[in-house]
Amino acid sequence: MDQDSVSSFSSLQALAKLLADPEEEDSDDNDFGSHSSSVSTVGPGNIGPAKKAEPTVIPDVKSGNSKDIWNTEEVPEGSEFDDIWDPREQPEYEILFKQQVGAEDIFLGMSRKNPSTACCEDMLIKIKLPDTKSSDITLDIQDKILDLRTPKKKLLLHLPHPVDSKNGKACFISEKETLEVTLRMKREFDFINFA
Question: How far is Cα 156 from Cα 140, in angstroms, rounded to an integer?
Answer without folding.
Answer: 10
